[in-house]
Amino acid sequence: MTKKLSGWFRLFIVFAVMWTVGSITVFYFNFTWHKIEVIDIEEWEGRHKAHKELTDLLGIDVGVDEEVSIEESYKLYLRENHNARMKVVYLFLLYWLAPIGFVYGAGWTTGWVIRGVRKEGGNID
Description:
The protein is mainly α and about 120 residues long. It has a domain at about 40-110. Helix content is about 75%, strand content about 0%. The chain has three helices and no strands.
């Protein structure tokens, strides 16, 4: 036994699909999650040494703790990189699902009210 979809539900599905395509397009072209650079530990070590040499050459004290190893700073870099990517993913899910949920909820609530009025025979006393 199959149940046919009502016209309003079909309209909601069209809206959800269009909103999904639009959301993916906007987030892909406007956010940099796919452009976040991930480097390997050898390049990180090279950058760290070059930064240290430059600060030593210029005589600048940048307040970097010498006790922190390159591996620890690389792990911190990877964690921050992962957090930045996840923030964009969560933001996308929020901006994608919230309007779809709101439209579905508003449509369901409106239908519920209309069905209640019809059961009463349209009398509003």
